[in-house]
Design goal:
By secondary structure, this protein is α/β, with parallel strands linked by helices. It contains 3 helices and 6 strands; from the N terminus they run αββαββββα. It has a domain of 119 residues: Double Stranded RNA Binding Domain (2-Layer Sandwich), CATH 3.30.160. Strands 1-6-5-4-2-3 form a 6-stranded mixed β-sheet. The longest helix has 17 residues. The chain starts with a helix and ends in a 9-residue tail after the last helix. The relative contact order is 0.22.
Length: 175
């Protein structure tokens, strides 16, 4: 039983350490976020993949709903504009081995192999705009690698995790 618990904890830590998700948020510190009760989703820059866009929008609605905001079509306090950007990052991996030498002297040799990969990435930028002032009051950016082998269920889970992490500290606390 202890071994199973140890394995679960180890895997959880390892998966968190391997996460490539990067989150950043910014907001207007003069804004009173307690006055916002409703939001509406508006058209931002949409990706070509409408399935992924629908997943992301659904995850954003759930994340904001869990934060006490209610989605509405008209008369919203905030407009949410999601923007989707696809990109690629270059990953360079070098591995090798060597042999030989005795106390730093002698013959030796070895081999190294370098591989270069283009890793697909996705960036989600979320702007929350106050409908009365038409000013952006909060911005969140989430960037991560895109798995090309994930199942639809895994993609849905990932979208939910990204949205939850993006709005983890929303609304911002007054300082």
């Amino acid at each position: 039983m202890k071994l199973a618990r140890y394995l679960v904890v180890t895997l959880a830590i390892a998966s968190a350490a391997c996460s490539t998700l990067k989150i950043s948020t910014d907001y207007d510190p003069a804004t009173d976020f307690s006055k916002y009760k409703t939001f509406a989703i508006k058209a931002g820059s949409a990706p070509k993949d409408t399935i992924s866009a629908d997943r992301a929008r659904s995850a954003l609605v759930n994340a904001l709903s869990q934060r006490g905001l209610k989605q509405t079509e008209e008369g919203a306090d905030l407009n949410l504009f999601p923007h989707f950007v696809l990109g690629k990052e270059t990953q360079i991996n070098t591995s090798g081995y060597g042999y030989g030498g005795w106390h730093g002297w002698g013959w030796g040799g070895g081999m190294q192999t370098t591989t270069v990969q283009q890793i697909p990435t996705g960036t989600l930028v979320v702007d929350l705009v106050d409908t009365s002032t038409k000013k952006v009051v909060w911005r969140g950016i989430a960037k991560d690698q895109i798995s090309t082998s994930a199942t639809p269920e895994e993609r849905q889970q990932k979208a939910a995790e990204v949205a939850a992490e993006l709005f983890k500290d929303f609304p911002p606390k007054k300082k």
